[in-house]
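Morning run. Coffee first, then this:
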Amino acid sequence: MGDKAAITDSDVIDGINIKYLKFFGLWGVINDYRTTEKKNSVLKFQVIITLLLMVPSIICQYVGFFVIEVDLQKASILNFHSLPSLQVCCKHLVFWFHLDRICRLNNLMTKNFLKESIPEFQSEKVISIYRKIIKQTNIFCLVALVVVFTGLSLIVLNPDVPVDYILYHTGNMFDITTGRFKISTGWYPLPMDKSPWYEIVLVYEGTLVVWGSLFVLAFICFYYQILMCLYAHFVVLGSHISDLNIDSDYQKNSIEYKKFNLQRYRELYRILQDHQKLLSYTAELKSVYNPLVTMILGVGISVLVLAVFHFMFGQTGDLVFIIRSFCYVLYQSIEVTMFCYGSSFIQTASSDLQFAIYSSDWYKADVKFRKAAQMMMIRAKKGETLTAIRMYPVNAETIMAILQFTYSVATLMSRFIE
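And here it is:
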């Protein structure tokens, strides 16, 4: 399928859920751009609304540091509540500025992506591999959906941030039990404790939370699906390589032997073409995802540090606040895990190609096949991974590094309080 052709439901890998992409208009945005190379009105509307909602919130959140009294606990809460808006903006802007490349990467979601090397008789095996990986992908996305909607419900239906605390107090937020309550700790250049400004702020924050949560979920599921489709293609290609049988009963240098080697070489050549295609898409995916993964890891670390600070060393006694914060921390942990493990899966599957081609008894084939096999083993020697900040490899080990860093920073912050 060409990059300028629209992708239909029948083109995508069996089992991939694209209903949410259609609901949010993202599927139409992608197909419109693939056919016209223009960003449609739906995307422009989404970006404008996102920036109009998120940017004022972010600005007011940080301006608050200079116009209201702030201690370490209030500063940490202000930062904690500003991170979701930064997330939404980053994910939407990555989609906007890289839409042409994302549309190309969307080819990874098609079932005939590896059309060069996969023979017809292996279709059932290929379908089985795709379904298994897509099932795992859908489970992660479903967990993220449940966590987001649980947190969203608690945030919107139970505003528990005292307006008086933001304007006039420091220390423990839960010591303030009088006055009006709102959704976030954001400060605004308005008399928030008086009508109708309080109601305006409350509606604004509710709209911001609902809009942001839904699009954070939509984008993260979409980006993760593309990542796991790339992993699935590497697994399928490795499975096909492992089925190459070089050993034969034909007498060496006979006509039958030469025909057999020629047939195997042609298979390997098609595999090389698809492998090169996968490497090309991997390089593009790494480039597009670099700012996204950098933001995800940065926000994930910040949220974990602030959460540990509040739950272990702070004075938080409100059950709803604890559950709500836990949902946010849980979502960030899921998001970090999705991309770290997804990258680790790709690293393993791409490097396993080297072992797969070696296990085919390549050295028993003729010179032509051996040279092609050696070339592929060299290309597959280093596994492919996502990167953060252009050079930092992202994999399963990254999660442990984040946890260690979180504990160290939270411990350091606790000493300031003491």
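The mean pLDDT is 85. Good start to the day.
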